[in-house]
Amino acid sequence: MTNIAILGSGRVASAIATRLAASGQNFVVGIVDPEKPSDRWSGPNTEFKSTSEAIAASDIIFNATPGETSVAFLSPLQSELAGKVLVDVSNAMRRDEAGMPVGLLYPDSSVAEHLQAALPDTAVVKTLNTMLFAVMANPECLSPMATVFLSGNETSAKEHVHALLRTMGWQEEVIEDLGPIASARGPESFMHFVPHIIAKHGFAPFALSIAR
User: Fold this and answer.
1) Exposure string (b/e) for 183-202, b if CB count within 10 Å is 16 or more?
2) Cis preceding-peptide flag for 144 (omega within 30 of 0)
3) 3-state helix, strand, coil in the chain (%, to 5)
4) What is the pLDDT of residue 192?
């Protein structure tokens, strides 16, 4: 069985951990200070490890850290992440002085592309970033099931992530492989909608989907 790490301990990390636990996957949660997880952790009981320990113990690593700081945070871990699959579920927005989102941090690129450039020996795969965190943990909560997108340069890495999505409850017909990592720009641009959707509807589950 593949060993999995989740980097982060907020709502997104909690949601992913909840679904992985329910599907019987082995995983560890890595954070900067294992003694001080986020007070937003709502996932299953687990032992928190340091970021480096979690990476060392795993083949597939979920980046559930804030997208605005992901590149700076993960770049120094280039050697530890070499040969691993990094599943990037983050989004990055520019924010005003009040902390409100005002646009994409990488308007002509994507978090995923910047991570791939910073981590050349790591296979970065973008997915699960076009939905509220609650949908990541429970794809069945929307009917019909939302589309989940994949972007990445390495076919074998995307195949591993594709298989993992299936074990997490995502149906084959809703998994959409967009192509190389540059295609992550499209899914990340969905963040232009997200603050307005949340302002109007709160945290009711929602996701980007393709109708055919």
Assistant:
1) bbbebbebbeebeeeeeeee
2) yes
3) 40, 20, 40
4) 95
Report if residue 33 sits inside a domain: yes
Residues 6 or more apart whose CB falls under 8 angstroms from that of 154 comprise 123, 125
Q: What is the pLDDT of residues 73-113, one digit of tens each?
A: 999 999 999 999 999 999 999 988 888 888 999 999 999 99
- The answer as to whether 128 is a domain residue is yes
> Does any domain span residue 146?
yes
Structural domains counted in the chain: 1
DSSP symbols for 143-159: SSPPPEEEEES-HHHHH
CA distance 74 to 84: 13
Beta pairing class for 85-88 and 60-63: parallel
The mean pLDDT of 129-135, rounded to a whole number, is 96
Q: Which residues contact 14 (CB under 8 A, 6 or more apart)?
A: 40, 41, 42, 43, 133, 137
What sections of the chain are H helices per DSSP? 11-22, 51-56, 67-74, 78-81, 111-118, 133-137, 155-167, 185-189, 194-201
In a domain, 185, yes or no: yes
Q: Residue 107 sits in a domain of what CATH number?
A: 3.40.50.720
Question: 210 is written with which tokens?
Answer: 């393709």
Q: Which DSSP symbol is given to 168?
A: T
Residue 176's domain comprises 3-201
pLDDT per position as a tens digit, 9-49? 999 999 999 999 999 999 999 999 998 888 889 999 998 99
Enter the pTM of the model.
0.96
